[in-house]
# Entry
Amino acid sequence: MSSPVLVLCPGLLNDATVWRGVTALLDPGIDVRVMDFSRCDSMAEMAAKIDTATTGLDQPFTLAGFSMGGYATLEFLSQHAERVSGVLLQSTAERAESDGQRSVRLKNIARAATEFEQICNDLSTFTVGPARQDDMVLKRSMVDMFQRLGREVFVRQSTAVMQRADHTATLSAVGSNPSIRLAIACGDEDKVTPLGWSRRMAEACPSARLTVIPGAGHMAPCEEPAIVASVIMDLMR
# Structure
């Protein structure tokens, strides 16, 4: 049998760097494939990239989505759940953008035209839990990643997130599918996708395993990679 496949979906303004600490701790026999969503204008395009990356596999694969990557994961599952054996929804949500969230996002899109560098600095502070606020190495690596991807990607992905579909029904279907192992994880200091959202998803899927990551903010894969890696390895056993 071929190696087990793990597909990792990054969040908004993230690339493979966001998963680097996690992948370093995984079983080396796993075929890890990190998605690049930098040119995607919609969740449909992101789901299509997952489809392309996994077409032809001879066995079901594990799919992990962080933040925006979780929205893309649910979009893919709404079409191809039968191809997946395990799912991690990390620091994300199943619902569509609220009017309030959309309003904030539109303001940030407009602000990015002249203040993108400041947005990157703000994100490195807002998305990290209190325990890592003084970790300048972590925060610098995040800012470097944000700036490397750039303003156009920020606008493009922000628009895609803002227009995402509601996948409450998709989550319910996945959670009740005995062929799919479902894990949900979130930092208890997450201010972007609060822990309450993950608890809500877990309550809707009694078979799901919820992992609360103490002290972590939204960037849990960077803040606590060992815990996220452990969740993934448990999912793949």
Remarks:
- The first helix runs from residue 20 to 23.
- DSSP finds ten helices and six strands in the chain.
- The mean pLDDT is 97.
- The two ends are 15 Å apart (CA to CA).
